[in-house]
Amino acid sequence: MANASRFLFFFLVMKPLAFLILGLNVRRRNLLPRKGPAIIVANHNSHLDTVILLALLPYRVAMKVSPVGAESYFFRNRFLACFSRNILGIVPVDGKHCASAAGMLRSVSGVLAEGGIVLIFPEGTRGEPERMGRLHPGIAHILKPHPEAPVIPVFIHGAGKALPRGESILVPFLCDVLVGNQLFWTGNRTGFMDQLASSFRQLAIEGGFHEWV
Amino acid sequence: MRLIAKLNPVILVAVSGTLLILLLASGAAMVVRRLHPSPLSDEIRKRIRTWWLIASLFLGMLLPGRAVTIGFLAFLSFLALKEYFSLIPVRRVDRRVLFYAYAAILVQYAWVYSNWYGMFAIFIPVYMFLFLTLRMVISGETAGFHTAVGTLHWGLMTAVYSLSHLGALLLLPFRGGSAWVSQPTGGITLLLYLAALTQLNDVWQFLWGKCLGRSKVIPNVSPNKTWAGLIGGICTTTVLSVALAPYLTPLTRMEAVMAGALIGLAGFFGDISVSALKRDLHIKDTGTILPGHGGILDRVDSLTFTAPLFFHLVRYQHF
């Protein structure tokens, strides 16, 4: 039942939404992971980010992806929790204890240990449309026990225009998706976070996007 | 089977004609690539491959009937408008305005589908023109207003209003051009005529320009457009328009000469108007959806000029 609805949602909602309503210009799609364990790290401006990233993967791979989402948001009522868990495959993390990252570690570690792919937005929240916020170091905590998992940075532009935070109406825009080279855990938190941040900066510069005013 | 039985001989001929042209083009490109391999010949091969896709999609959308054809054209307008809105700088405050501009696509093609010529002709230039302006004013942001109001209206007129004239050709109560067409064809043959001539005109202009082109028509806008290409293209298109007119249109020979010259010249201006837009925005192509061609706007640019002009030429003279 859950599998069937996931299948239908993927092909009837996510794929058409990403490719027909929005439309994607993807650079280096081949760098996206084909198998786990792996971590996809993306900037976050819109709920569409998850849709876009999942739709870019083949069905078999997309089913292995667990997006990381705040429990207090995606599981705030029974209906939404059911949808988040069964259709989107979201791994809930406790928003309040994110800093300690203990709860986060446990659930996400499980996904990686089972050969899954984790999708995480290290800005933590969607924030201001089309503007990159600070990267939270929670991802470093996930990586420490899984140094073998490659980290793939993905920069998305346009989704924040199409469906920004606080808006309920989707306005179609073409979205750019820039996939960066994979990174590995360096053994050092600040070193790794700097590498990740510089990776995102390079992708943003490559896109040459303007701020949205 | 019912579909095949309903197939119009004109469309069958169009499909075989297209097939023939594409086979010839693919063959010629293959020979050229064998003899003189170059980046240009690779590019042309990619372009022809995409032509196969465009032609089969377009002809495929004519076959199942009017509703599908109009739906397809509406989707084409949607893709073109989305490309345009994604390329130009739009203000955050105009998000809802863009939403209404998209909604106008459905309404405009609904007039086409319901055969309401009057509303089709005025809906965007009158009602949407005023409504979008009004909606932008009440959002209360004056910074960047005149740029925004100008660019949004140009996009809506180009991508939706102009292109919807392709669908409007289906409104014209044309009943086949010659004796061997027994069933009423509607304006579908007019659409075929315009689309084929406009798209081929792009090809002729490109080929004449590549073979003989020297002095440039308007180098500041498009460095690839030469006088030889323009004039050779117009002449070739006119010859073709006269040859095809008796089968696909009610045009007399004189009118077909006019239509051919009009399509050749207007196609050129449509093409360079999108070139001017791209120059201004410092981009090479409007998108990546059609390999070898660029975006949807790169492909329909000529049609944005030829569709309304050809529609009114035919309508004025025959309906």
What features would you highlight for this structure?
heterodimer; A: 213 residues; alpha/beta; Glycerol-3-phosphate (1)-acyltransferase; seven-stranded mixed sheet; 9 helices; 41% helix; 16% strand; globular; B: 319 residues; mainly alpha
Full CATH superfamily name of chain A: Glycerol-3-phosphate (1)-acyltransferase
Q: How many angstroms separate the termini of chain B?
A: 34 Å
CATH architecture of chain A: 3-Layer(aba) Sandwich
Label the overall shape of chain B. globular
- Percent range of helical residues of chain A: 40-55%
Give the CA-based shape of chain A. globular
Task: Explain what this protein looks like in three dimensions.
The complex is a heterodimer of chains A (213) and B (319). Chain A has 213 residues and is α/β, with parallel strands linked by helices. Chain A has a single domain, classed as Glycerol-3-phosphate (1)-acyltransferase (3-Layer(aba) Sandwich). Chain A is built from nine helices and seven strands. Chain A has a seven-stranded mixed beta sheet with strand order 1-7-6-2-5-3-4, with helices on both faces. The mean pLDDT of chain A is 89. Chain B has 319 residues and is mainly alpha-helical. Chain B has a domain of 106 residues. In chain B, 75% of the residues lie in helices and 0% in strands. Chain B contains twelve helices and no strands. In chain B, helix 6 runs antiparallel to helix 7. The radius of gyration of chain B is 20 Å and the shape is globular. About 2% of the residues of chain B have low confidence. Chains A and B meet through loops of A and helix 4 and helix 5 of B.
